[in-house]
Amino acid sequence: MSRIFMKYAVLGFVLLAATGASAAERLKQVTAVYLDDKGGALANPEGIACDAKGGIVVADTGNGRLLKYSFKDAGISGGSEVKVQQLSVPTRLQLDSKGDIYALDGKLRRIVHLKGDGSFVGYLDLHGVPAPDPQIRSFRIGGDDQVYLLDILGQRVLELDPSGNFRRQLPFPAEAGFCSDLALTRGGDLLLLDSLASVVYAASKGGAEFRPLSKDLKEYVSFATYLTTDSRGTIFLVDQNGSSLVTLGPDGAYTGRLLALGWKEGQLYYPAQICVSDGGLLGIADRNNSRAQFFELIK
What is the pLDDT of residues 254-278, one digit of tens each? Predict the structure, then answer.
């Protein structure tokens, strides 16, 4: 592993949840990545995705590119650049079942589809979606490659097939404030994050409406902007303004807080997206520290 582009944390360092006596998760720091494989620095990364085989893609947003790394033998290597003219401001990332990359362009608000090797396939064009034209803030790729879009203009979640054909829509709850993200559980339920109300809503697989899953989380969360789940059903909230991660149980109950504001490795400064692999790797796009950080989940 090249020392040119890596900066390592102490592998034995374990970060416990800062609060919550019954916290379900602990993190063991692996490393932090600041550079690509040619020594170029990351700039305000906002996206990250990881797969079960150790593949990692980072949206190096400030540089208008993607970077590909891999996780193996408790270390991160790689850093090869993927840059296409059709993707100028990559933000949220997702990988499909074939390892293809889907990236939301934060300027165009369009989703760009790339092969795993980084070659451009096309934009995800939408077909048959009812008015208004969606304004996409976030998205998810499901287990069978169906697509879910968070449309903040239409105040709804759109479900599409892999080719972009409309299947159905679920309206945001009437009482919702500002819904900033969505996620899928392993069972196919949809989760919806309301950043203003600090509430997570859920819609059962095939269900027609969102209902509150969590209580008001303002006691624990400053302003959450992203959520995801792991294989055990733990829900992770990225508390952007609190520069930390908050964990909830599958029932939406608060279980703890991980990490805190700072500039040292193991600390965060306005984090954006996270990914959690089936192998227990947790990656964080640590935006304002201009790095990606990696941890192993300790059960």
Answer: 999 999 999 999 999 999 999 999 9
Place of tokens 């209580």: 215
pTM, two decimals, is 0.92
Q: H/E/C letters for each residue in the chain? A: CCCCCEEECCCCCEECCCCCCCCCCEEEEEEEECECCCCCECCCCCEEEECCCCEEEEEEHHHCEEEEEEEECCEEEEEEEECCCCCCCEEEEEECCCCCEEEEECCCCEEEEECCCCCEEEECCCECCCCCCCCEEEEEECCCCCEEEEECCCCEEEEECCCCEEEEEEECCCCCCCEEEEEECCCCCEEEEECCCCEEEEECCCCCCCEECCCCCCCCCCCEEEEEECCCCCEEEEECCCCEEEEECCCCCEEEEECCECCCCCCECCCCCEEECCCCEEEEEEHHHCEEEEEEEEC
Q: How far is CA 30 from CA 15, 18, 151, in A?
A: 11, 19, 35
Do 69 and 33 meet the contact criterion of CB atoms below 8 Å apart? yes
pLDDT at 24: 57
